[in-house]
Amino acid sequence: MSINKFTSTILFVLFSLVAFVSALPVHIARDVWDPPIISPNATTVWIVGQKYNVTWNTTNPPSQITNTVGRVVLAANGLEDYENPLAANFSILLGSIEVTCPNVTAGNDYAIVLFGDSGNFSPNFTITN
Ligand SMILES: *[C@@H]1O[C@H](CO)[C@@H](O)[C@H](O)[C@H]1NC(C)=O
Ligand SMILES: *[C@@H]1O[C@H](CO)[C@@H](O)[C@H](O)[C@H]1NC(C)=O
Ligand SMILES: *[C@@H]1O[C@H](CO)[C@@H](O)[C@H](O)[C@H]1NC(C)=O
Ligand SMILES: *[C@@H]1O[C@H](CO)[C@@H](O)[C@H](O)[C@H]1NC(C)=O
Ligand SMILES: *[C@@H]1O[C@H](CO)[C@@H](O)[C@H](O)[C@H]1NC(C)=O
Ligand SMILES: *[C@@H]1O[C@H](CO)[C@@H](O)[C@H](O)[C@H]1NC(C)=O
Question: From which residue to which does the signal peptide run (predicted)?
Fold first, then answer.
């Protein structure tokens, strides 16, 4: 094999490899899943210090979920307290997680945010003491 023939063979193999690799999908598609929160909802009243189940609808989860690790966060007036979750590190496929109502000022503009893939807000509900 001449040097030129050898070089062009190498080049052909390299170009073929590049073409093959760029034809591959960049990543396997995964589904973003935001299961709706069932409770708390607009009729819910929580009392400070009491235990409640946050529940969400797990009907028809996609087969591939980007992030199955759940986190439940309280939001006051639309502001999430992400750093102080009411629950974390549970499977989002559970459909329910028990939390203790934190000692916050009474109000009717609280919401629960359920994180997995991304944050999903409950309706606003009431907390009393
Ligand atoms: C709303 O939340 C309450 C608990 O706070 C629950 O008992 C009720 O079933 C929920 N309503 C609906 C429509 O899911
Ligand atoms: C939350 O749900 C679990 C499982 O259904 C149940 O054992 C527990 O008593 C519930 N907690 C409250 C505070 O309702
Ligand atoms: C859960 O979602 C399914 C559809 O995805 C719906 O048929 C069902 O009624 C929902 N259940 C509750 C308790 O909201
Ligand atoms: C909950 O209350 C906040 C603050 O008042 C408001 O910005 C938000 O739109 C309300 N959310 C819903 C779902 O009504
Ligand atoms: C969740 O897991 C992370 C990493 O393992 C840990 O740093 C964090 O404290 C855990 N949070 C809770 C509420 O268990
Ligand atoms: C909540 O906090 C207030 C003031 O910090 C305190 O007086 C009250 O006893 C607390 N309530 C509970 C249920 O821990």
Answer: 1-23
